[in-house]
Amino acid sequence: MRLPSDWHALLYMQPALTLQVSEPKVILLPSLMAKSRKTILITGCSRGGIGDALARRFHEAGFDVFATARSLNSMEHLASVGIRTMALDVTDIQALRKVKANISEITGGKLDILVNNAGLAYPVAATDFDMSEVRPLFEVSLFAVMTMVQEFVNLLIASGDACIVQTGSVSGFTPVPFSSAAYNASKAALHAYGNTIRVELAPFHIKVVNVLSRRCIRLAYADAVQIITGAVKSNIAKPRSLPSNSLYRPMEKLYQERHLNTSQQNATDTDVYAHEVVSEVLKPNPRAWFWAGARTMSAWVVDTFLPRRTFDLIMNKMYGFDTFVAMLQENSKNV
Fold first, then answer.
1. Is 100 a catalytic residue?
2. Is residue 90 assigned to a domain?
3. Which CATH number characterizes residue 98's domain?
4. Is 110 tagged catalytic?
5. Number of domains making up the chain
């Protein structure tokens, strides 16, 4: 092939079209950034409780954590380490929907894990109930959970592989006195609810884990994974005196010594508890009921293999009812 005689002139010709290539600019929208990490919403994350510990542990595991509590001030320590905090009263449907809208905007309409942890305690005997306190307990510990699932189910379905975690309690199937019967009943109902939605939501690739515990260190009840929570240190079992007209007033001293001390005796630290729960929830196939915290396995053994009244004997001894019966018998002799 012969080149034109003036081929060398081509080297000095100006191009008819000049292309200028600039540095590429990448704009990361919030929804795109969130896709790089799994997302989780946790209720009841006030400082010192189980939700607090779970939020920190999931954050350490690389999750984009949305931590909620009634007060933002109670979660300042979480915000300081990069955890997203949102004020939420789980019984306020409008506040709940506002949080849902905010999360949906950030994540692109998806949520990978929902942890229903918010709850209330009411440690009094059944005959001492003030129903104005019992009803709010059920609103927070049970009905709000049902509402959370209804509101967030579409975001969970959009995940393609989601999980709902319920903070349950061994009090839901053991006759723990002064826990109270209302609290115990709310947890029993929560376990039943978790069992049912586990079946109903399975076709949509949503796992449900019930975490059963007893309590957590620092005096808070910790109670689909359903987490059966055992003795775990937290801050929900606050000191309370028996009413002056209570049938159990004669055992006030025993109540204070046994109820409050027993709830935290040999309790599992919240951080240890959170590590156990997070490890279970992140498994490809987590257990439907996960027993976490001190003494939960003992409760499982009694519940599974021994007569129901075995619990009565244990609770009578643990909470001083055997001593109380002796006191009543002695008093009847002196009448």
1. no
2. yes
3. 3.40.50.720
4. no
5. 1
CB 40 within 8 Å of CB 115: yes
CA distance 174 to 180: 11
Mode of pairing for the β-strands spanning 206-214 and 64-69: unpaired
Whether residue 21 lies inside any domain: the answer is: no
Q: pLDDT averaged over consecutive 10-residue blocks of the chain (335 residues)?
A: 47 40 40 68 96 98 98 98 98 98 98 97 91 97 98 98 95 87 96 98 98 60 45 54 89 77 69 95 96 80 91 90 87 72
Identified catalytic residue from 38, 100, 110, 187: 187
Rounded Cα distance between 89 and 71, Å, is: 9
Catalytic residue among 183, 193, 255, 273: 183
Among candidate residues 61, 57, 59, the one with its CA nearest the CA of residue 49: 57
Whether 59 maps to a domain, the answer reads yes
Residue at 259 is within a domain = yes
Q: What is the model's pLDDT at position 239?
A: 54
Q: Domain range for residue 200?
A: 30-333
Please count the other Cβ atoms lying within 10 Å of the Cβ belonging to residue 264.
19
Three-point CA angle 141, 147, 150, nearest 5°: 140
Residue 247, token pair as written in the block: 């049938």
Entry pTM: 0.82
The residue assigned the tokens 């540095």 is 23
> How far is residue 275's CA from residue 270's CA, in Å, rounded to a whole number?
9
Q: Length of the chain, please?
A: 335
Distance, in Å, from the CA atom of 118 to the CA atom of 144, rounded to the nearest integer, reads 9
